[in-house]
Protein: Cell shape-determining protein MreC
Amino acid sequence: MKNLIEFLAKYNHWFVFILLEVMSFMLLFQWNSYQGSIFFSSANAVAGKVYEWDANIEHLFSLSKVNQQLTQRNVYLEHELMQLSHHLEKVSGDKNVMKSAQLDMLRNYRLIPAKVVSNSLDKRDNFITLDKGSADGVKKDMGVVCGTGVVGIVYLASDHYSVVIPVLNSQSNISVSIRNRGYFGYLHWTGGSSSTAYVDDVPLHAHFKLHDQIVTSGYSSVFPPGILAGTILHVYNSSDGLSYRLMVKLSTDFGNLRDVCVIDDAVMQERLQVLRAAQDSIKEKEGGDEN
Structure:
């Protein structure tokens, strides 16, 4: 307290000066219309600029959320477009008719938007880490997609993070089909370019052409059918000569992957649980037979 009193006593003339200046400016702007108008015009200009900066900053921080929403919406629209197009071309042939049954399929699952926090492209077994985990509803074996197509499958999930096995992993093996052709195979990556992968086990009697689309088959219990994976670039014979091997240009740009969506589909999860139960039952039966 003593120090404060000494400080005020030492600099009291400065405080008196500031007080008198404030009072003089108040009297000047209050009782003189010209000076008052200049003051308020300047104050409004400054305030307007501050509000503009504030709005720009808020807009900048909101872009992340907007991008997530756009990615989620793009996934919905991409899947909807492919399903409806396939249905209309194969069944009705009328491209102006929309079947509500296809729209009902989209209501069976929800998408959990997530951001990629780490990603690798130069390894044989690449992994992707997402900023969403079990606390957000993410579970092991859920499919992951982005606005342009398939990304991978959830491998591990902690409370707030999850690890994904992407297509660019030697352990990835996703059931796919040639759109509108009805032939199936498995999409996998053998290393090298991050823009291409291969589909094996396509039968030799299959009819298709270059640039046909490769989509998820819906048989993996992870992805719904019709999600784009890529397009056919080249066709080879398999090493044993009993099937085709297709080089596929991937629809997902893994080098520029930022926002993704995890597919939370109760129907697919139920199918996966039934499949696991059947596998466990077979293992227990085989173990009992051995005893």
